[in-house]
Amino acid sequence: MEKFDAIVIGAGPAGSTTAYLLAQGGLNVLMVERGQNPGTKTVSGGLVYSKLVAQIFPNFLEGAPVERAITGHQLVMLDDKASVALDFRDQMAGQQPYNVFSVLRARFDPWLAKQAEQAGASLVNGVTVDSLLVENGRVIGIQAGADQIGADLVVIAEGTRSLLLKQAGLREDFQPHDVSLGLKEVVALPERTIEERFQCAPGTGTAYTLVGHTCGIEGGGFLYTNKASLSVGIVVKIDSLYRNKMQPHQVLDRFKSHPLINRLLEDGEVVEYSAQTVHRGGFHLMSRLYGDGYVVVGSAARLLLNNIMTLRGMDFAILSAEAAARAILEARKGGGYSEAELSVYAANLRKTSIYEDWRTFRETYGLMENKRLFDEYPELACRIMEKLFAPGTQASPKLLSAMWQEMRGHLSMLDLTEDAYHVLRGLIL
Amino acid sequence: MRILALIKYSMDVAEVKVDPATKELRLAGVPEKIGAIDKNVAEAAVQLKEANGAALQALCLGPLAATDSFKDVLAMGLDEVFLVEDPFAGAADGRVAACILEAAIRKLGQFDLILCGFASDDGYSYQVAPRLAERLGLPLVSYGRQLKVSDGQLEAERDLEDGLQAVSVSLPALASIAEEAYPPRRTTLMEAIKAKKKPVNVWHVEPDLGLVRNELEKLSSIESSSQVGVMIQRKQRMLKTATLRESADQLIDLLLEEKVLKGGSK
Amino acid sequence: MNSQAILVFSEDADLLKELVSGAKQGTKAQDWRIAAVGVGKEASALANLGEDVLYQVDVDVHNPELLTAALEAAARKVEPSIVLVGATKLGLEVAPRIAERLAAGYAAWATGFEVASGTEGAKVMAQSMIFAGVGIATHTFKAGPVVLSVARGIFDSRQVDGKQAEVVVLDTPLPAPKLTIHGYRPKAMNGGRLAQARFVVDVGQGVKERDDLQITQALANLLDGQLSCSRPMSADRDWFPEWVGLSGAKIKPELCVTVGVSGAVQHIIGIRDSHLIVAVNMDEGAPIFSQADYGVVADLYEFLPLLIERISARGIRPAWAT
Ligand SMILES: Cc1cc2nc3c(=O)[nH]c(=O)nc-3n(C[C@H](O)[C@H](O)[C@H](O)COP(=O)(O)OP(=O)(O)OC[C@H]3O[C@@H](n4cnc5c(N)ncnc54)[C@H](O)[C@@H]3O)c2cc1C
Ligand SMILES: Cc1cc2nc3c(=O)[nH]c(=O)nc-3n(C[C@H](O)[C@H](O)[C@H](O)COP(=O)(O)OP(=O)(O)OC[C@H]3O[C@@H](n4cnc5c(N)ncnc54)[C@H](O)[C@@H]3O)c2cc1C
Ligand SMILES: Nc1ncnc2c1ncn2[C@@H]1O[C@H](COP(=O)(O)O)[C@@H](O)[C@H]1O
To answer: Residue B193 and residue A149: Cβ atoms within 8 Å?
Structure first.
């Protein structure tokens, strides 16, 4: 049997980063990707939080094919016709070194994979790994078609569905309420039009996070500026789709039809459409990270942060890959890849900012369950603003009384207080 | 037996868009890969190798960026690739390209059979095979299918407009492969891993091929060129009605208005 | 080289006529000599296309090497500035060979040309299809002869004038060909009916089973039309003898209804001369819709039966029906 020091399954951010670091560490690495090219099967809204990523890939800032540096963030609540926005422009974010970039995976993933190849890893595209080879509870290689390839260590970076792990009995079944569906379109527009429409300088751009107008389905939407296109999409809860008997693309179509979004997308041509499941993520949901002869990295281990404000999967994937690679190289010095030796991975992970961020955002998990947030509040916010800014024949009310008038009959004060508390705990404090 | 396959790193012309305002062709960022026809060429070469035993080399005139794209054909069973870096980035006259390919072939030595595509995916100019036949003084079987080699002869069918012509030539010879004549095989992981160890050699026209860039430039018969996109304005009207039956009626009404249909009542 | 002559060749008589007519149009006011090459014993019948001289050669028209040699011999006599060759599979092999032998410039798939007389002789400018028909290039050639291959339908075949050309028999001995021809098997073809059809139902891989062609055939029959198809329907599935597109037939009906065709550029090139195009496709994002006059986003299995039913019920006929 042909054998490698390490086989990496999947050339997404998690896989390519692990392959890159292991090859740098002197291992003979094979990386297998089922797409005809990296980035052809992966889905993201496309924001990369880059501070830590740039530490792992020193040439990230000069070399990586990023679309725009994101210097403006908008949090928008939508109801049927109106919207209320919170506009966040960090002066620091508008200057180098930038912290957030938009990327297109079809360009970004190949670049990451190229870093791994240049470090000496072998990449094979267009081959699907069919199963893990397991012997006496130890992963000893992979099977693809009739071919079996051995490895001292297998890195499972197969992304969110993690079928190989399930098949090998190395993970539990997912709970439907922990899974959302992400739908995304890339809409082509000329560079200049984007810069005029979003009022941004060449090379910089804006990210919109949108709540509401998702047919009452729990979730949210996003709209990010790329160089000559926009990435627009929604991430909505699957069980809620079922309950409401909605087709995902109906929800996306309706979302896109909102006047605000419609105007931003005007004259654009949809050039790409993709869909993928997204986990909630969180350390209490994290899958098993390692065992004899294998580690799991990136979203295959549900290593991501998904609250309404941000969906961070790529940087979590890359950071977890680094934590894993360090553990692997250390275990190699120790002589083996047993479960005990690989446990350093979990310890490494606990020291990363992923863990910190998870702790900070712990409180938002409940938010995703709270239907009011996606349904009633956006509408409420818009009605209040309407009362304030578009006074009719009656005297314009003060803010608080405007709120009060609107809320009566819709929500109880108790609900509101409770929700406000969670929002504050989860997102801000 | 020695077989040479000519493979081109071609643009995916389906991704070439025309700017509606300026009619310019948007070529930046159009993906490139080994053309579909040239994967047929590689498959033909591999099948001949399986039938007769042969050393299989491939030649590509193209940019250095092509290097990554050879993985597939190497996994299919080619042994080695020679990439001649194109000094004119593909803009060269067909005559100049043929001249460079000829020099590379002569440097590679005597082949029993040289295979190429009948027309490349992007150039689609049908000229490399006939030009090389002239330059190398080799017999050519154009639009070939069902290639068989025996007793120093190449037998094949030429795929013509209205029929298949059975022909033969003696080796050494040149053959161009007809459209879809050899659908490429799927490769396995093992083959892909082995392909990693196969060499991709890079040559430059100067000095590797003994050609001089300026001389090549002079060889071109084209003084200057410009290009525009072809735009055909269609109405692009989407019929949106509540039921498909209404769409059918609406379509009929529109075609009546257009005067391609007639008669009838509502 | 004589800068005032054009040599034209095609083994296809209709195409040859178009080329002679195109040669006349391209040289308009200038007093150029047009020489044609006709193959076979019957070739003198081609002496009335409007050319000044017809070179008659008696060689096997099926052997590209012999035709190259014959055309070369004619070119040595005529010393043309331009050689127009019909872009059939044969012509597309012969034309670059001739260009090599004459050290001439060459453009495949020419769509037009102009000449200007300069100090070093005629200067040729030619337009040609590039990137498989997505674009048109205009080349200005350096002084010297230029070979152009030209497809059917580029020049109209209007009769130039009724004069009888001088017929010259070319009997230069030609070298023995290296290619031996053993036989010929005709392909099953639509027999040119497609080229004439005024209504075409153009089917693609959206049609799943061979039996389902009955639905599309029913629509074609109803409006007195023909079926055509995309390449995979013929080359992969073998349901049709020929396909439409870049490498297949070109059609120009009054009405072309595509069903289950995605609209790849290579296919569009075969139908883009249709007067009206209607597209039926399930996928709203299919590129065919930007190439169509009217688009219906629908499952063809639902829509076609309805369309057929409505056409029948309303007593609709094609406009050209008598
Ligand atoms: C709509 C949407 C929006 C998102 N927006 C963002 C965002 O803005 N920012 C952000 O950071 N994250 C975002 N994410 C999350 C992010 O995309 C993922 O978390 C991230 O891609 C995880 O990286 P990964 O390397 O673990 O897995 P992936 O990127 O999924 O890569 C896995 C790779 O493995 C390959 N593979 C799978 N199975 C096999 C097999 N059996 N054999 C061979 N290869 C295999 C796949 O083809 C793929 O290339 C978004 C996700 C969605 C769905
Ligand atoms: C050098 C070169 C030359 C080529 N030359 C030609 C050529 O001459 N002619 C040619 O045709 N192709 C040619 N091709 C191939 C071409 O690129 C395309 O692959 C081909 O035309 C696709 O055929 P299609 O539209 O039938 O199939 P597909 O691309 O598979 O499209 C099928 C369509 O059917 C739709 N569909 C599926 N089910 C249904 C349903 N139930 N109801 C309605 N719609 C449905 C789908 O949405 C899809 O859009 C060439 C390619 C190359 C590289
Ligand atoms: N740059 C190139 N490098 C290698 N082979 C080529 C190149 N250009 C054309 N060919 C070969 O010639 C065939 C016909 O191309 P063309 O004559 O350009 O349409 C292709 O299918 C290839 O086999």
So the answer is: yes
- Partnered with residue C167 across adjacent β-strands are C54
Specify the pairing of strand A138-144 against strand A147-156: antiparallel
What is the CATH number assigned to the segment(s) B2-219? 3.40.50.620
In Å, what is the CA distance from A131 to each residue of A135, A145, A150, B188? Answer: 13, 9, 12, 15
- Please give the DSSP secondary-structure letter assigned to residue A425: I
Three-class SS of B149-171: EECCEEEEEEECCCEEEEEEEEC
> Rounded to an integer, what distance in angstroms lies between the CA atom of residue C90 and that of residue A324?
62
Q: Which of C130, C134, C230 to mutate to test the pocket of ligand 2 (most atoms within 8 A of CB)?
A: C230
Residue C50: domain span: 5-169
How far is Cα C73 from Cα C75, in angstroms, rounded to an integer? 5
* Contact between chains at A30 and B193 (C-beta distance less than 8 A): yes
For residue B31, count CB atoms less than 10 angstroms from its CB and return exposed for 0-12, middle for 13-18, buried for 19 or more.
exposed
Domains and CATH numbers, chain A: 2-67+104-172+287-351 (3.50.50.60), 177-279 (3.30.9.90), 365-428 (no CATH)
Q: How far apart are CA B265 and CA A225, in angstroms?
A: 52
On whether the CB atoms of residues C300 and C205 are closer than 8 A, the answer is: no
Backbone angles phi, psi at B9, to 5 degrees: -85, 105
Cα–Cα separations (whole angstroms), residue A207 to A49, A66, A97: 12, 14, 18
Q: How much is the pLDDT for C1?
A: 45
Total number of domains in chain C: 2
Q: What is the pLDDT of residue B221?
A: 93
CB contact under 8 A, B131 and C295: no
Structure tokens at A168: 């090998």
pLDDT at A429: 42
- Note the ipTM here: 0.82
Residues 6+ apart with CB under 8 A from A66: A48, A50, A101, A102, A103, A108
Q: The domain spanning residue C216 has which CATH number?
A: 3.40.50.1220
Rounded to 5 degrees, what are φ and ψ at C146? -135, 130
Give the count of alpha carbons within 13 A of A350, CB side only: 6
By the 8 A CB rule, do A45 and A331 touch? Answer: no
What gap in Å lies between CA B67 and CA B65, rounded to an integer? 5
Domain annotation covers residue C182: no
- What is the Å distance from ligand 1's center to B15 Cα? 25
Torsions phi, psi of B166, nearest 5?
A: -85, 125
Give the C-alpha separation, B203 to B121, whole Å.
24
Q: Which distant-in-sequence residues (6+ apart) come within 8 Å of A398 by Cβ? A: none
Q: How many residues does chain A have?
A: 429
* One-letter amino acid of A335: G
Q: Are A17 and A321 in contact (CB under 8 A)?
A: yes
Taking only the tens place, the pLDDT of each residue in A304-346 is 887 766 788 999 999 999 999 999 999 999 888 999 999 999 9
Which neighbouring-strand residues pair with A89?
A: A72
Output the six-digit token pair for B76.
């299919």
* Residue A142: closest CA among C37, B189, C161, B258: B189
Same domain, C246 and C133: no
What letter represents residue A21's amino acid? L
Cis peptide before B20 (omega within 30 of 0): no
pLDDT digits (tens, 9 = 90+) for B220-246: 999 999 999 988 889 999 998 889 999
User: Pick from C169, C184, C203: which residue ends a domain?
Assistant: C169
H or E element that contains A372:
helix A372-389
CATH at C104: 3.40.50.620
Mean pLDDT of C175-201: 88
Residue C214 CB neighbours (<10 A): 10
Q: What are the φ/ψ torsions at residue B250 (nearest 5 degrees)?
A: -65, -40
The residue of chain A nearest to residue B19, with distances taken between CA atoms, is: A190
Between the CA of B16 and the centroid of ligand 2 the distance, in Å, is 17
